Amino acid sequence: MSSIQTADIEKFLLQVQKPARYIGGELNAVIKKDVSVRMAISYPDLYDVGMSNNGIRILYDRANSMEDVACERVFAVARDFESLLRRENIPLYTLETYTPLSDLDLLGFNLSHELLCTNVLQILDLGHIPLLAAERSDGHPIIMAGGEAVSNPFPMADFIDVFFIGDGEEGIQDILTVLLQCKAGGSSRRETIERLSGIEGVLNPSDYHFTYDGMLPVDVQGKRVKKRIYRGHEPVDPERPIVPGMRIAQERAVVEISRGCYNLCKFCHAGYYDLPYRSYDYRALAEKVTTILGNTGYDELTLSSLSVSDYRDLPVLLNTILPGLTERGISVSLPSLRVDLNTIPVIEGISDVRKSSLTFAVESASEDMRKTANKKVSEADLLCIMEYIFTRNWTLVKLYFMVGLPGCGDTDEADAIIGLLKKIIMLGNKRKEIHVTLSPFVPKPHTPFQREKQMDAAYVEDIILRVKQGLPRFVKIKNHDVQASLLEGILARGDRRLGAVILQSYRDGCLFDSWGEFFRFDIWRKNLDALLPGWEGMHASRGSEVLLPWQVVDTGFDRLIQGWETRQAACLAVPGVHKTAMELDTEKIRSAAAKFEEKYGVDSRIRVRFTKRGPARFLPHLDFIEVMKRALRMADVPISFTQGFNKRERISLGYALSLGVESMSELCDMDLYKPVTEKAMSLLSGFLPEGIEMTGYWTIIGKESLGSLIRAFEYHIAVPDAATFSRMRNNLQSEITLVKKTKKGEKVFAFSDIISGSRVDEGSNSITLIVRTADEGSVRIDSIVARLAEASDDSMHGCRILKIGQYLGKKDGETELV
Fold this sequence. Notes:
Structural class: alpha/beta
Largest sheet: 9 strands, mixed
Number of strands: 30
Shape: globular
Number of helices: 27
Strand content: 15-25%
C-alpha cells in the first residue's frame, strides 16, 4: 500500500480554511494497514456535508466488518485546497491512511441528488483517475455510484464503471466479495467489471445502447436491472459511527426507524423509489439508541424516516427512550413528523424548551392541485391546525410550497398562495412570525409525475415575484434557485448525451452546484446550447408512448406508478403500518426533567489538563470544546449545566490556542454537580480523537476564571532551516517590535511588553519563548513567529510550535507552570 506522508500534507494546511476537513484521525475511524482490497466511499461534497450523510456511515460500517477489506473516506475539497494539491502535485487521498485514490481497488460515490455530478469529477480529477470510464485501464480503481440520483443512471454513465441500484447494505458486501475473488485470481479490470455486473442491483452502463429521434430516446438495447431492496429486520445504523472532530452540518446521532413511505405524494421521488415501507421493532431501536449515544457523546438524537408520523410504534418508542434521554439532557429531533392535531402534543412533549417553530409542507395552496398530487391535507384542516397552534403560543410557523405542480395551468398559483397566507395571518392576529419557502416542482424518475412538464424559469419567477409583492413585509419569503431547479430537472430525466455537457461544465469551472454562491448556470447554459441543441425540450411533458431512459431500472413498483389511481388503495393498506394513538407518558418525562435539574447545582470544581498534538492541532477552539463535551458525556463525568433557554455544560478552556499550534497543556475547568469517580476520568482519553489526551486533573477552590489566572505561556519552536533560524535568532537579540492585528489595523508593541523570557538552542535549531497575556497586549504566537521569521503572514514559516505550559497566578503573587 502506498500512502502520502502526513507531513507532506500538514505543512501546507495552514494555508487553507478549515484544515480539519483534510486530516482524518476522528474518534471511531477504522484504520486497516494490510488488506487485500482497499476501497473508499464518498459523498461528493465538502467534509462538513458529506459526514452528515447517514448512508456513508452505514456502508463504511458494513464494508469494514469484512475481513481483508478496508473501507476509507474521501470528500470533495474546497477551492483553496484544490489549488494547493494541484500546485504541489499531491494526489487527493483517503482520510484513514492517506492512500492516493488512484491506488484504490474501488471508489464508490453516494449520489443523493443530481447537482453533485461535477463534484464527482473533481474527486476523480484530483485523485489522478481518468474522468472517462473509457479511458481507464488495468491498474485504475473501479468507479461505482449508487444513491437516489442514480435511479436514472445514464447522465453520469460516461464517468462511472458500474452503478448500484437500490439499498446497499447487503450489496456492498457482495461487491467486495467478488473483488476479493477477482484480485486473488488475477482477473483483469474488464473481467472484474463483468463479474460485478452479475450481482443483483449492479448496472453496467456499457451494456446499453440508445436510439434517438431528436431530443427523445425511442429505443434502448440492454437488460432490465432489478433494484436491490434490503429486507432485514434489524436497524442497520452503525453502533460506533465516526465522530468528526470539527463541526459538521448535522451534529447528532441518527437512528433510522423506518424506510419507505406509504403516503405516496405523487411528486416524491424518495417515497416511491424507497418502496416498500419497512419499519424496525421499537425494542431493537431503543437498544441501538443507547449504544450509539454511548459511543458518540452527542446531545441530540434524530429518529430518521421519510414520515416519522407513520411509524406504528412511535409513542411506544418515545415512551421507552425519552425519560432516560431527558434525564441526561439529550434532545430528540423528529425532522419528518407530519404536523397535525394528533402530533402536536408529541412535539410539545419532546421539547423541554420554549416553543419555537413548526414546519408545514403544504406543497400547494390549491385544493385541487393537492388532490392531484395525493397530498392529504385540506385547507379547512390546515387552518384548524394554525388556529390551534397560535393559541398554544408557538412563535414561528414555516410553510413550504411547490410552484408548477401539475394542474398549475388551471390555477392562479400566486393568488392561491397569497389568499391562503392572508387567512393564516388573520388567525395569528398579525403577531406571529411566518416564513415561507417557494420551490420549483422538479419531475423525477419512478414517480407518477415522471412524465409531467417542468415549468420554465419565467413562469416560476413570476409566481415568486407576485407572492412577494402581495404579502406584508413581516412575512419572510425565500425561494430555491430557479435555474438550479431547472438544471436538476434536466439531469434527473436526461440520458447519456448529458455526459459531454457535464464534463465541459466541470472543465469550465462548475463545482458545488448545489451551493447558491458557487452555482454558475451561465456556464451550464453555454454548454447545453453548444452540445445539446434543443435541450429546453427536455422540460416538456412526455406521453405514455415516449421511452424513458430509466425504464431499464426495475423498482418492483412500476405497475403501481403506471396505474396509480387504481392501485393506491392497495398500497396504502400495507400490513403493519397502522399506528397507535400518539400519547406520551408525560409523568415519566416530567420526572426525568426534574432529575436533570439536579445538574444545575455545583458540588465541586476540577481542572483538567489535555494535550493537543498531531492532527488535533488543526481543530479550531470552538470545535475542540465540542470534542471535550462529547468525551465528558461518554465517560459519564458529572458536569453541571447552566439554566435557561440554552442549557450548556459549565466548562471553560481559557485562552484559545492558535490553529496549527500543538500543546502539552490545554486546561479546562469543570463544575461538577456531584463528585467524579476515578473510573470516569480514566475513561476520558479513550473517548478523544487522535492527538488529544487527558494527562491529569485536580480539584480547585475558588471561582476565578482561567482567563483571569493565566499570566503567560511557554512555547517551544522548532525551526525548519538554518536561514530562518538565523533570522529569528537575530530578531530576538535585537528585540524587534511585535505587531498585533486588530479590526482597526495593526497595533505595535515593544518586545519586552510581550516576551518575558527566551532561550535559543543552537544545536537543535529551536527557540523557547515565554509570552505574556494581557487584555491590550496579547499577541498570538503564530504572529510572533511570523514576525521573527520575517514572513509576510501568520503561516509560521514552516515552524513547529509546541505550547509547553501555562503560568497561572497564585494568591501570593507568584506564578505556577502547569
